[in-house]
């Protein structure tokens, strides 16, 4: 409260505000910890994955017991945040963010923070934020490098910013990098300190926005390289493009897209995520009983887990989504899903 600009009024705004953090990996953990301790009243924490031992090198909200239990990240992050501040409302959401649920999640918050490891979902959030008039803070990191950028295109009018000075993500990066191009945490690794720095830069912009101090936001594409030991800042003034598909033409291509591919190889792990062909609600206890002849399955933390033939393991969530471990072959994962969960 002693800090200039963050007195009583700003503190009241923070307490009444809601941040949606999509992706509770390394970047998400860094940002969530700062948002919680800054007094943001409500945090909606979204992640589709579970904690694994190799995450602990950089994902600062989790401990060994979370990894041993294979706890869903969103649940473990919410537990940690409530341990920091029992008065904070932390809402875990163990879901895959898609065109079907993005608008609902984004519409319910004041700012969206990017903790993602894939571009397609990032562009989907960019679409949702611009179309629904929300602020979005982009963040990304791989190897020793990371970037962050506030997307104020959705709130430019309300904030008195010129459209040209409030670009969206697609004004700056028009297209999603094609699969197989560019590094991922799978191929290049991630340096722990770089995600702390990028997560802090993103959290700083989110806290300023939620406190009603958009005037203090760093309106720049900010980047850091901890191998070359460089920090760069490219101002975003004038970067908004009238011909941008998203904020210019208001064609929300990612928000309007159908889920084309039901399988995704998970970054950094020997695992594939498989989505159900249509929205479903699975009775996990009944499925456990059906799978009893195959092996011992457990229902815990909202998912069914167990080993399946072919040296693979299966984690099934109530929304029909599954993570198949022990393979990076989408066909084998799909086959296991269809065989044991049912298509
Ligand atoms: Zn744009």
The coarse overall form would be globular
Q: Which residues sit in consecutive blocks of at least 5 with pLDDT less than 50?
A: none
Number of strands: 14
CATH first level of the largest domain: which class? Alpha Beta
Q: What can be said about the biggest beta sheet?
A: 8 strands, mixed
Tally the helices: what do you get? 12
Bound molecules: zinc ion
The total number of structural domains is 2
Radius of gyration: 20 Å
* Mean pLDDT across residues: 91
Helical residue percent band:
25-40%
Q: What sequence of helices (H) and strands (E) makes up the elements?
A: HEHEHHEHEHEEHHHHEEEEHEEEEH
The main sheet orders its strands as 3-2-1-4-5-6-7-8
Describe the structure.
- The chain is an alpha/beta fold and 343 residues long.
- The chain folds into two domains: 8-235, Rossmann fold (3-Layer(aba) Sandwich); 263-340, TATA-Binding Protein, CATH 3.30.310.
- 31% of the residues lie in helices and 21% in strands.
- The chain has twelve helices and 14 strands.
- Strands 3-2-1-4-5-6-7-8 form an eight-stranded mixed β-sheet, with helices on both faces. Strands 9-10-14-13-12-11 form a six-stranded antiparallel β-sheet, with helices on one face.
- The longest helix is centred in the middle third of the chain and has 19 residues, at 192-210.
- The radius of gyration is 20 Å and the shape is globular.
- The chain binds zinc ion.
- Zinc ion binds next to α8.
């Amino acid at each position: 409260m002693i800090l200039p600009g963050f007195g009583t009024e700003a503190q009241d705004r923070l307490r009444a505000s809601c941040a949606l953090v999509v992706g509770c990996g390394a970047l998400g953990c860094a940002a969530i910890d700062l948002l919680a301790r800054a007094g943001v009243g409500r945090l909606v924490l979204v992640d589709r994955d579970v904690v694994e031992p190799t995450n602990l090198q950089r994902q600062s909200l989790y401990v060994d017991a979370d990894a041993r239990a294979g706890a869903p990240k969103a649940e473990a992050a919410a537990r940690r945040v409530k341990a920091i501040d029992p008065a904070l409302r932390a809402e875990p959401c163990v879901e895959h963010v898609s065109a079907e649920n993005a608008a609902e999640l984004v519409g319910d918050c004041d700012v969206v923070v990017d903790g993602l490891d894939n571009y397609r979902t990032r562009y989907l959030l960019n679409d949702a934020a611009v179309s629904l008039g929300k602020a979005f803070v982009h963040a990304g990191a791989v190897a020793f490098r990371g970037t962050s950028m506030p997307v104020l295109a959705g709130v430019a009018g309300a904030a008195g910013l010129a459209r040209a000075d409030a670009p969206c993500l697609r004004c700056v990066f028009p297209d999603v990098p094609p699969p197989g191009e560019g590094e991922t945490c799978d191929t290049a690794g991630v340096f722990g300190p770089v995600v702390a720095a990028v997560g802090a830069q993103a959290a700083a912009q989110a806290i300023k926005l939620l406190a009603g101090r958009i005037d203090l936001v760093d309106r720049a594409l900010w980047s850091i390289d901890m191998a070359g030991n460089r920090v760069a800042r490219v101002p975003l003034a004038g970067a908004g493009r009238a011909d941008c598909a998203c904020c210019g033409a208001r064609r929300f291509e990612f928000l309007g897209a159908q889920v084309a591919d039901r399988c995704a190889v998970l970054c950094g792990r020997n695992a594939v995520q498989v989505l159900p062909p249509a929205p479903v609600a699975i009775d996990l206890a009944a499925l456990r009983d059906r799978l009893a002849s195959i092996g011992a399955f457990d229902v815990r933390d909202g998912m069914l887990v167990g080993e399946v033939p072919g040296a693979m393991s299966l984690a099934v969530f109530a929304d029909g989504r599954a993570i198949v471990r022990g393979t990076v072959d989408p066909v084998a994962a799909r086959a296991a899903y269809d065989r044991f969960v049912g298509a």
